[in-house]
Amino acid sequence: MKDKFAIEGMTCSACALTIEKKVSALDGVQQVNVNLLSNSMSVEYDGGILDPEKIMSEVGKAGYGAQPMGGEKGKTPEAKDQPLQREADQMRRRAILSFLFMIPLMYLAMGEMVGLPIPGIFKGLENSHSFAFVQFLLTIPVVFVNRSYYINGFKALFHRSPNMDSLIALGSGAALSYGVFVVFAIGYGLGHGDHALVHRYMHSLYFESAAMILALITLGKYLEARSKGRTTDAIRKLMDLAPKTAIRLNGDVEEIVPVEELRVGDRLLVKPGASIPVDGIVIAGIGSVDQAAITGESVPVEVAQGDQVIGSTILQLGSLQMEAQRVGEDTTLAKIIQLVQDANATKAPISKLADRISGVFVPVVIALAILSTLVWLAIGESFEFALTIGISILVISCPCALGLATPVAIMVGTGKAATNKILFKNAESLERLHEVTDILLDKTGTITEGSPSVTEVIPVEGITEEELLKIAAALEAPSEHPLSLAIQSYVKDRGLHVQPAEDFLNILGKGIQGKVQGKLHRAGNLRFMQEQGLEVQGLMEMAEELSIQGKTPLFFADENQLLGLIAVADPIKKTSKEAIRLLREQGIRVHMLTGDNWRTAEAIRSQLDIDDVQAEVLPEDKEAVVRRRMEEGGVVAMVGDGINDAPALARSDVGIAIGAGTDIAIESADVVLIRSDLMDLIHAIDLSQKTIRNIKQNLFWAFFYNVLCIPLAAGVFYPAFGLLLNPMIASAAMSISSIFVVTNALRLNRFRKRSVEMGEDQGDDPIRMSIPETMIAKPNNGGKKMKKTIKIEGMTCSHCSGRVDKALNAIEGVQATVDLDRGTATVEASDNVTEEQLRAAIEDAGYIVTGFLE
């Protein structure tokens, strides 16, 4: 079983590590992942041994709270955002109240030192007790509103698992306790006439240090919480695609209901311009559906009765009645969101070093603070000086930055990938992808379109073309293989009607057989025919010639003789050649796996400049090829889309399912490219590289910060340079460290897909196109190019940017790229295109142009 829990009370990586250790020690637990950023925990366990109550109880014993998150998927986007928003709101209130009392406290404590006027009742030795006691009273509210640091910190300390709160509680608590001692000391001095004692302690109260530590750390926590909220922007944008209501049909009555109330089998009405509420099948009507937000396809899809539709896509034209088939957490969009959230809940291997250090970090810091205090006392410094050293060490040490270094980058990286139609199932695959040395590409559906068409029909002597086609169509009718579908489509277009073969048998990697009109017939590759002992010499030369042309010859035979062959060609995708070139440019070896014969495979290899090809590969051979490459020491990624690719995807270091693939292939993969476009593989590798680089930067900063600041706080540089760190500055520095790590991770939101330039005109070669048509500059009729940036208001989601993109690129001579985040469109156009044309196109799409920039 696998369950998710919301965790309360975590403040740093030491907290997360403590919970992981406690829960991992339970019998029946197989894997635990605690995410500090989302305050969540996922646990895989044996349901026969353990139950959620025991897990939550163990978390409670560790000093934290846990609640099941089983209903998380069904919540609205707003509800899912509540924990982070609630944390930010709470920290904001605490920060405001803290500063409300801390500012007058600082004025009273420090004002006279910097020449500011203070009331006479607080001046002089005779008023020192009032001076001290009022500071104490101003400190109490700051301590009270931030009492969670003390509750959580000392609770963790008593459980022998100290965390960041423990450091804050000890540091500010020591300052506060010393201040209370000073209040009594001043009272004692005034009562006994010991003015020297009063003078000694009057300006050594430390209440302002305690309050300032708490106030600045809370301010830092508020800014951190706000930044953490921004790390989920990508998931929030995905959630915002989901429609809130649907029109359900009860007979002829239309009723508007929340999407959460829909059930499988409900009849729904979708009107023009509305979002399709859930996944389902069209039962009446015809329409044009914009699927760009889910599939990335810019061209609307025509749908009619019997066609599948995807929830959260937009019906642009027409009106549909549909039957709901997948609702709630089973819709395509919900599964995409869940994949992203699951990836966020996992840990990248690179984070293990930070985890190991965090496990001992806080106890070492506490020991170091005590030791430093004792050393300075031993060498003759005053107690106040030594106490300042101890408090500074406790406050400046920041396990929080270590704990956030990896998860914030993973969350932003996986979220950004999802908005670009790339899904990483776990953090390990995100890290592993940038290390890949060998990529194995399945041919059909990955390199090629996966929708082949018949090019030649060659019967043997004594068999007519129509007879061969009827036998071929009958044999192929029960099959769903792309080559079979090509033959069925060709026969249907010819107006021929046939009955499917009986006793159909699919022989994986070789061919098929079945009875047509009571007689056994076979279809398949050359090897299959030869294994059946059939004479194929008469068509060998023709088959070889077709193979050289990159076509796939399919042989057909009855029990005794060959009947003919049908050639089928699967066009290469427009972006495959460019994607393969870019892979090789990065030093990655590209291999193609195909069940085609060697001649066909070699023809495609030479066209695309692929390093290596494995032809006539059976499904089980693909897995063996992957295993062999891994044994040779390579880091292997496998890209495929079919059921027969699943074993190879599962075996590889990184399995990548191309978007048009089967559910089984997607289930076996670590990465899913929603669009069937190999350029997205390039983008996935780029994003993997940038995310891991960002994590390394974060870890370097977190380590560098602590290595530099802890010695500074301990006074190591004081004897030689007079450098000493005030506890108030230390608390500010600690907060800045965490904010820096989160802000650095947010830079990943600026990731842009690499632009691909078109080369010289390459004629009608089907593989010449290296980028999608929407990215290709239109002819400019010989005019000069102008480049403008258009500022646009009203775009709120990817549907909006898709409409603007489509409207602009429909203008002759215009190439446009729309940036949703910035609310702009960058346009390159021939000089005969006017601003009025561009403005009209955008405003006709329903948006407002606010300006043009050259």
List its salient traits.
alpha+beta; 28 strands
List the helices and strands and how they pair.
Elements: E1 2-8, H1 13-24, E2 29-35, E3 40-45, H2 52-61, E4 65-68, H3 77-110, H4 128-145, H5 147-158, H6 164-191, H7 195-201, H8 207-230, H9 233-240, E5 245-250, E6 253-258, E7 267-270, E8 279-290, H10 292-295, E9 301-303, E10 308-309, E11 314-326, H11 332-344, H12 352-378, H13 383-396, H14 399-419, E12 422-424, H15 427-433, E13 438-442, H16 443-447, E14 453-459, H17 465-476, H18 482-493, E15 502-507, E16 511-516, E17 519-524, H19 526-531, H20 537-548, E18 552-558, E19 562-569, H21 576-585, E20 589-593, H22 598-608, E21 612-614, H23 619-631, E22 636-640, H24 646-651, E23 654-658, H25 663-668, E24 671-673, H26 679-713, H27 718-721, H28 727-746, E25 785-793, H29 798-809, E26 814-819, E27 824-830, H30 835-844, E28 848-853
Parallel strand pairs: 13-20, 13-22, 20-21, 22-23, 23-24
Antiparallel strand pairs: 1-3, 1-4, 2-3, 5-6, 5-7, 7-11, 8-9, 8-10, 8-11, 12-24, 14-19, 15-16, 16-17, 17-18, 18-19, 25-27, 25-28, 26-27
Helix pairs in contact: 1-12, 3-4, 3-8, 4-6, 4-8, 5-6, 6-7, 6-8, 6-13, 8-28, 9-14, 11-14, 12-13, 12-14, 13-26, 13-28, 14-26, 14-28, 15-26, 17-18, 20-22, 21-26, 26-28
What do you see in this structure?
There is one protein chain. 48% of the residues lie in helices and 20% in strands. Helix 21 runs parallel beside helix 26. With 854 residues, the chain is an alpha+beta fold. Strands 5, 6, 7, 8, 9, 10 and 11 form a seven-stranded antiparallel β-sheet that branches. A seven-stranded mixed β-sheet has the order 12-24-23-22-13-20-21, sandwiched between helices. It has a six-stranded antiparallel β-sheet with strand order 14-19-18-17-16-15. The model is unreliable at 71-81 and 757-783 (pLDDT under 50). The protein has 30 helices and 28 strands.
